[in-house]
Amino acid sequence: MAGAIWVAVLRQEQEVLMRHYLINSRLEMNKIMKKISILLCLTLMLALMACSSPQDPPEVEFTYIHGEDYYFSTVEDLVTRVDHVFVGTVTDMSFNVISTETGRAPTPECNPERLSLGRTYYVTVLTAYKGAERDVMRVTVDGGIKGYREEEQLALIQEAGAHYWDGVYRIPIEVGLYPLEMGETYLFAVLDLRIELDGYSDFVGIVNATQSLLELNDPFEIVHDNSGLSAEAIISEFGEEAFEEHWENWQHNTPDWEQRLEEGNVSSRVYNHQDYQGDDNEQ
């Protein structure tokens, strides 16, 4: 009888101990889970802070290149050989990379050495003297622009694998080819190009920076001494009436035209021309 009593007492003690063990285990587990939750929250906060903190822009390097330009010896030769002559206003611009072999956007099969960064200006035609039958002309030129949307240009050449020299991606800057300004009006003498991008194939390109793109601050300024080329000389090739009309429009749209003529060709570009003169890092 006494043995049975002791057995019952021991069982009760075991049950009490087991309940204490389970309670303590749950408490310890709760403590562990709280610590894990705190660590997860801290990790998430650090990740969010890292994503939202400003990142240093990538270091951009440049290389200066010389275009293979052809220069016309006379104004008559220029007007005869180009496909389009028109006065137009620059309304927009986009950067692009094309294959010089195919005239299209790069593909994995393209030779990286034949890929070229360029920019396309969207020009609203005001007066067409030759060709230029579209309301908006897409004028494409080689090279990038220093100090303007550099990260966008760098991303394009990195994605395409273009302009990779000495272990570094470099934005090419064509010497002497200055950027055109948004909202400014120029005289264009350009050629049709065999380029197809984004479903369009009506791109035109320059012969050279001096004879194909003329500012209109002073229509009489000689921009190319050897050929005697000026806006007045080019437009006059299409008749005296053509230049007389341009001259009247120019005076009407240029309130300070007399002062501009007295001062000569005062460039309206905001870019530093020194950035487009080249340096020791040329290809």
How do you describe this structure in short?
With 283 residues, the protein is α+β, with helices and mostly antiparallel strands. The protein is built from seven helices and nine strands.
Topology:
Elements: H1 2-52, E1 61-65, H2 75-81, E2 84-99, E3 115-130, E4 136-142, H3 150-160, E5 164-165, E6 168-174, E7 185-192, E8 203-206, H4 209-212, E9 213-215, H5 231-236, H6 240-253, H7 257-263
Parallel strand pairs: 1-6, 4-8
Antiparallel strand pairs: 2-3, 2-7, 3-4, 5-6, 7-8, 7-9
Kindly describe this structure:
The model is unreliable at 265-274 (pLDDT under 50). The protein is 35% helix and 24% strand. It is built from seven helices and nine strands, in the order H-E-H-E-E-E-H-E-E-E-E-H-E-H-H-H. It is an alpha+beta fold and 283 residues long. The strands form two sheets. It has a five-stranded mixed beta barrel. The chain has a three-stranded mixed sheet with strand order 1-6-5, covered by helices on one side. The protein folds into two domains: 1-55; 64-263, no CATH class. The N and C termini lie far apart (108 Å). A hairpin with a 5-residue loop joins strand 3 and strand 4.
- Helix % is 25-40%
Give the strand tally.
9
Strand order of the largest sheet: 2-3-4-8-7
Give the CA-CA distance, first to last residue: 108 Å
Tell me the number of structural domains: 2
Radius of gyration over all CA atoms, rounded: 35 Å
Characterize the main sheet: 5 strands, mixed, barrel
